[in-house]
Design brief:
This protein is α/β, with parallel strands linked by helices and 338 residues long. The protein is 34% helix and 14% strand. Helix 10 links the parallel strand 10 and strand 11 (254-257). Helix 4 packs across helix 6 (154-165). InterPro entries: D-isomer_2_OHA_DH_cat_dom, D-isomer_DH_CS, D-isomer_DH_CS1, D-isomer_DH_NAD-bd, D-LDH-like, NAD(P)-bd_dom_sf. One of its GO terms (molecular function) is NAD binding.
């Protein structure tokens, strides 16, 4: 029975992981993140399971490989935190969870949209103080307005279905149009037009070199002054400094962020007694029309169970010498040319 060490395990996630591996392998769950400082603790473990906020750069991977690790089982869809080229050079298998409940993220994105649009956090804060005035709480109907969806994969499609249910006009941007979204009435347009015409812009894209800071000063400048921006994908999709300047100029009706480009080491931890040294995040927190949550969009029982079960299957595949749609690298993977 193989012992697996899992990093960045949340308290609510641990029972689901333990159930998924029960009777198959020993599982050691750690709440600390995997990085250069903690990588030596994996010594002697063939399989390491990583979270989205772990840092698996070339240095960390070399330490893991030297300690006997042969597989990285990432418990997320995204894998921009892993140096895949170095993993290939070291002969490591890397697998991810290629998909889980798309409804978890899509529904949470709409929770942010509704909360921002209808000023729910402000209203709740007031009523707790027995202030029942409506001044400053004026929202807008989503019905009849335009939703712009960047990325129309599984999550983007689930988001689009909800937007269609609201009776919204649908604009989409993606490398390849999705027939499901087109059937809902979505018009695929270029990125600039989507930013310019949308009342609500929602991001459902992976973080890649070509999507890094996709929402930059130029894109923000194209958006309507009263538009709402949502990001439940990856923080690096938005140039946060440019977003702060846009908000300082009094533009955008609201922003809902479940991710932040410098969230590693912050999100999933209690920093309530610490001095906040991230000036950009601190500045974002001062805007009343900005709602920030700590990367919880995926965090439903359904999605967490699917992630745990898929991670267990990925481990079983590795030990059996199999690959699947979740395999990113393996010792038999072709090494890219220079």
């Amino acid at each position: 029975m193989t012992e697996i060490v899992a990093y960045g395990v949340l308290a609510d996630e641990q029972p689901l992981l333990e159930k998924a591996f029960a009777g198959q392998h020993q599982l050691r769950c750690l709440d600390l993140l995997l990085n250069r400082d903690t990588a030596p603790t994996a010594a002697g473990h063939e399989i390491v399971s990583s979270s989205v906020n772990d840092v698996l750069d070339a240095d960390v991977l070399r330490v893991l490989a030297a300690g006997g690790t042969r597989m990285i089982a990432q418990r997320s869809t995204g894998y921009n935190n892993i140096d895949l080229d170095e993993a290939r050079r070291l002969g490591l298998t890397v697998a991810r969870v290629s998909w889980y409940s798309p409804y978890a993220v899509a529904e949470f994105a709409w929770a942010l949209a509704l909360a921002v649009n209808r000023r729910v956090p402000r209203a709740v804060g007031r009523t707790r103080e027995f202030d029942f005035r409506l001044t400053g709480l004026l929202g807008r109907d989503f019905h009849g307005r335009t939703a712009g969806v960047l990325g129309t994969g599984k999550i983007g499609t689930a988001f689009t279905r909800i937007a269609a249910g609201f009776g919204m006009r649908l604009l989409g941007w993606d490398v390849t149009p999705n027939p499901e979204c087109a059937a809902l009435g979505m018009e695929y347009v270029d990125r600039d037009r989507l930013f310019a015409e949308s009342d609500l812009v929602s991001l459902h894209l992976p973080l890649l070199p070509e999507t890094h800071h996709l929402v930059d000063a130029t894109a923000l400048g194209l958006m309507r002054d009263d538009a709402i921006l949502l990001n439940t994908s990856r923080g690096g999709l938005i140039d946060t400094a440019a977003l702060v300047e846009t908000l300082r100029a009094g533009r955008l009706d609201g922003v809902g962020l479940d991710v932040y480009e410098e969230e590693a080491g912050l999100f999933f931890f209690d920093h309530s007694l610490d001095v906040m040294t991230d000036d950009t995040l601190a500045r974002l927190m001062t805007f009343r029309n900005v709602l920030i949550t700590s990367h919880q969009a995926y965090f439903t029982e359904d999605a967490a169970r699917q992630i745990a079960d898929t991670t267990a299957r990925n481990v079983a595949d590795h030990l059996a010498g199999r690959t699947s749609e979740n395999t990113l690298t393996s010792p038999t993977s072709p090494t890219p040319g220079p």
